[in-house]
Amino acid sequence: MDHTTAAAPPPGGHELPVNAIRVLVAPDKFKGSLTASQVAASLAAGLRQENPGLEVRTLPLADGGDGSVEAARGAGFQSLTVPVTGPTGHRTTTTVAFDGTTAVVEVATTASLQMLPPGRPAPLTSSSVGVGQAVRAVLDRRPARIVLALGGSATTDGGAGMLSALGVVFRDALGHPFVPTGGTLREIADVDLTGLVGLDGVELVAANDVQNPLLGPDGAAAVYGPQKGAGPEDVELLEAGLGCVVRRLEEAGRPAAEAAGAPGAGAAGGLGWAAMLLGARTVSGADFFLDLLGFDRQVAGCDLVITGEGKLDTQTLSGKLPLAVARRAAPVPVVAVVGHNALPTDRLTDHGIDRVWALSAMTEADSAADPGLSAALLREIGRRIAGSPELTSSGTASASGR
């Protein structure tokens, strides 16, 4: 289902002219501040306030991180509430998006850093078991496809928690079954796969934009462990544990060592690797969600695309959402609206982004910590874009050609 919001008729009730300038507002979230839907709504409000004659469509986006379920819901998916165990063992619920065929399960609401108490990371004791519980619950709905949105995990357990919830039994040297965490992966002495749930007929998709392998200096523990609170000794422990679970699953008959070296295996603390062992195909989170949410249909006939995210930095250049939007939108002009821009302008124009509007350039306050301020600044930027050369020149040229 398309998620389209057209502009309201101008004052007086007249319909928009057939050559009205068309704008697609298609941002990601501003992490920690506003959801993608809130960003899109604020920009659209400013655009319409300045120029009621615009035809404005909003399409909140996601790239496989937090916000993926919300973006799918905005595109017409229904919400399923599923009880799960959080990353440190507390009972909670997660929301899964489902349209009768495809289900979207989000690591960000099952096993993420944002689910931990502020300032209390759990690099050795957290688990991905909630991800597996959500997948198992969705399987009861008989989906044709399950999408794992892998961004934002709190754990580096190699996906062992997820596998446990799906029926894999891990045992220690005494033969006792247990659910491993990152800190206890080294205790795995045996793996029993006989109880693993059947996934025949279900396409499993792992959506992320991380290309790291599972092990080594570019792997899950070394690169992402410190971001999850792991100190140097913790990283060594996690690396050893990941190596152990690879060996044990290889002994159990899975191509674990080969999968560990594949691009994306290190995503979400090794959940990417575990998903591969279940038969998942890995995809670019940005491009996959652009397809899932119907971006190509929405951009057709538009004169300008407005995209953005909380921060543009070197990670953006690796193919994150704003660049994917610019590539897919071409030759339609694209401008980005962000919380902060840490990139030179020329590096962005090379990737199809014509201009960047940054909230940090408009205020000395920390707008990321003030959602109300962020929304107000976005509305102001929307007003400025409505009168900018990017819109008037592109719109006039495009409209005259229709």
From TrEMBL:
Annotated SUPFAM superfamilies: Glycerate kinase I (SSF110738)
Similarity comment: family membership: Belongs to the glycerate kinase type-1 family.
GO molecular function: glycerate kinase activity
Organism, scientific name: Kocuria dechangensis
UniProt protein name: Glycerate kinase
UniProt keyword annotations, A-Z: Kinase, Transferase
A Pfam family that the UniProt record links to this protein: Gly_kinase
Lineage: superkingdom: Bacteria
GO BP annotation list: organic acid phosphorylation
